Amino acid sequence: MAALEALTRVREDGAYANLVLPPILAAASLDRRDAGFATALTYGALRLAGRYDAILALCVDRPLAQLDGVVLDALRLGAHQLLGMRVPAHAAVSATVELAAHAAGRGASSFVNAVLRKVSAKDLDAWLAELRAAAPDELAALAAIESHPVWIVKALRQALVVSGRDPSELEDLLAADNADPEVVLCARPGLVETERLAAEARRAVGDEPRLGDTSPCAVVLAGGDPGRIPAVRDSRAGVEDEGSQLVALMASEPAITGRDERWLDMCAGPGGKAALLGARAAQRGARLVANEVAPHRARLVEAAVRAIPDGVVEIRCGDGRQIGRDEPGRYDRVLVDAPCTGLGSLRRRPEARWRRDPKDVTELAALQRELLLSALAAVRRGGLVAYVTCSPHALETSLVVKDALSRATRGGMSIETLHAGDAATRIAPRPPAGADRAQLQLWPHLDGTDAMFCALLRRDR
């Protein structure tokens, strides 16, 4: 019932699984094993909804859009147990039929029973072969098999090409979006050492952690509830992807000439990067302005930075697009972690791929350009701007940078692009796969991180 309730909330209320599932599990008083099963079932059914819908469409006598929403959710849960989990077929069908009877009535349960018996008649490889044979082309086949909208498949292929990668990596990239991500902690510098955080994590969750490959601040867990770890509870550490940690450090670590005491995080919510930057600022005698346009996200920033010494971080609530006009040349370092489609973190946000569409990219790219231009105006001559997105889409990454630099040059600025790959190599324990390129693009299938993008820009005039 917990998994079905979560899927219903996601479908009907536009909720996010990572936010609604924990309280549902807590209310159900499930033990660790059952909670783990419900979590895997929920996330798997959401991530692979496209694959399962394509299979279910071959097993029903009507369009899936005509099915009651709760029945379709139950069928997806059943399909994932049959084809994506090690659940015996009779147990998966029986449990799902009982679930459908409880949620939608006996008539629905008979229908669910008939459909899932058809699904169980073939194994996953046979179904995927059938989907591939039915697809009009290779990209459509990958969209169905790897459960991504076709437009995202095309965008990710283009992103690989733009980043100098072989487009044959596309299938591995899509598959990585469907894998369960590890839990990654960030040991905020000066507040807790990585070894101490690893020891706290070992005692709290019972699993053996490891240090990160991409961020020197990362401690990686196989699973468990990070909220049980003391350093996480008191914000000396936080849950943050290794790629996110690396790009934040890329804003703070490259050397600049002259003053280095005024830092700005232009789009600071929900606060992970701001907390890492604030911790580094405290060590370096600098001050950080953490700006966030949304009041509720500004409150999240406040919670994230509460362990940092008083006076280091100033939290503001305002439109980052106005900062360059209101405070020209004030800052030595500026991080622009721009609002984006989030196509780089699909493995962590399983419902996101079904909610985005191409027009979102166009609208966000316009906002991203404005924010980057504001950052270039807000940084002093000789200062550094790090432009970051959690999306590899070319319209949100390299093309935004290219357009903003062109406009800045026409406005009389002189901007130098620094080699982000070199900067990442100097920071990361293991160089990222794209470290040879001037603009850094991380990849889940190569680096084990979210697909973070980072460009480093220095204003010379």
From TrEMBL:
<dbReference type="InterPro" id="IPR006027">
    <property type="entry name" value="NusB_RsmB_TIM44"/>
</dbReference>
<dbReference type="GO" id="GO:0008173">
    <property type="term" value="F:RNA methyltransferase activity"/>
</dbReference>
<feature type="binding site">
    <location>
        <position position="292"/>
    </location>
    <ligand>
        <name>S-adenosyl-L-methionine</name>
    </ligand>
</feature>
<dbReference type="InterPro" id="IPR049560">
    <property type="entry name" value="MeTrfase_RsmB-F_NOP2_cat"/>
</dbReference>
<feature type="active site" description="Nucleophile">
    <location>
        <position position="390"/>
    </location>
</feature>
<feature type="domain" description="SAM-dependent MTase RsmB/NOP-type">
    <location>
        <begin position="159"/>
        <end position="460"/>
    </location>
</feature>
<comment type="similarity">
    <text>Belongs to the class I-like SAM-binding methyltransferase superfamily. RsmB/NOP family.</text>
</comment>
<dbReference type="InterPro" id="IPR029063">
    <property type="entry name" value="SAM-dependent_MTases_sf"/>
</dbReference>
<feature type="binding site">
    <location>
        <begin position="267"/>
        <end position="273"/>
    </location>
    <ligand>
        <name>S-adenosyl-L-methionine</name>
    </ligand>
</feature>
<keyword id="KW-0808">Transferase</keyword>
<keyword id="KW-0949">S-adenosyl-L-methionine</keyword>
<feature type="binding site">
    <location>
        <position position="319"/>
    </location>
    <ligand>
        <name>S-adenosyl-L-methionine</name>
    </ligand>
</feature>
<dbReference type="InterPro" id="IPR001678">
    <property type="entry name" value="MeTrfase_RsmB-F_NOP2_dom"/>
</dbReference>
<dbReference type="GO" id="GO:0003723">
    <property type="term" value="F:RNA binding"/>
</dbReference>
<dbReference type="GO" id="GO:0006355">
    <property type="term" value="P:regulation of DNA-templated transcription"/>
</dbReference>
<dbReference type="InterPro" id="IPR023267">
    <property type="entry name" value="RCMT"/>
</dbReference>
<protein>
    <submittedName>
        <fullName>rRNA small subunit methyltransferase B</fullName>
    </submittedName>
</protein>
<keyword id="KW-0489">Methyltransferase</keyword>
<dbReference type="InterPro" id="IPR035926">
    <property type="entry name" value="NusB-like_sf"/>
</dbReference>
<dbReference type="GO" id="GO:0001510">
    <property type="term" value="P:RNA methylation"/>
</dbReference>
<keyword id="KW-0694">RNA-binding</keyword>
<dbReference type="Pfam" id="PF01189">
    <property type="entry name" value="Methyltr_RsmB-F"/>
</dbReference>
<feature type="binding site">
    <location>
        <position position="337"/>
    </location>
    <ligand>
        <name>S-adenosyl-L-methionine</name>
    </ligand>
</feature>
<dbReference type="Pfam" id="PF01029">
    <property type="entry name" value="NusB"/>
</dbReference>
